[in-house]
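Need tokens for this chain, all 169 residues.
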Amino acid sequence: MLLSPWYRRLIGAESIDRKYSDASVAMISRFVAEHHGADPMWMRGVRPRLPFNWGAFPARAAITSLSELSDYVAEHKSGRLIPTLFEHYALISAEVLAFNVDSDFADVVAGLICVDLLKAPKRKLARFMGPMAVEALRAASRFPLLFPDYLRIISRSLDLSKSARRITH
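Here are the structure tokens for all 169 residues:
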């Protein structure tokens, strides 16, 4: 991130293991989509190839947090807590773009996750990236035309290898 602070959004997948029952997968994916769903502007261009069908599974309106969902899934459905990364993503304001059944990966249900690093709480972000990378990200978002100078300064202050310095000059 220090050498590429202009990348403010990270996108990746988080899967829900097939060891969960279909009802648990439905509860987890529906809750995450409803409570941590992305802005519709981002979702316009995203279409799952094989969407997970929630229709057969009723929603649980009484569940209002990931910890309640995790407890419910553990007690009633599969004896397992929800995937830990969903909890971590929620802490840094990640959003789910869509859920897809991945037929090439044992039919797991995978959520396409987008993390906008500028929306994430600074303290939580610093825990994962380090304080210097957070400051680099914030500076790059304020002064996008200063990238070459900024990278030169960062590479010198971190005493990066000669090959990394050549990239920035």
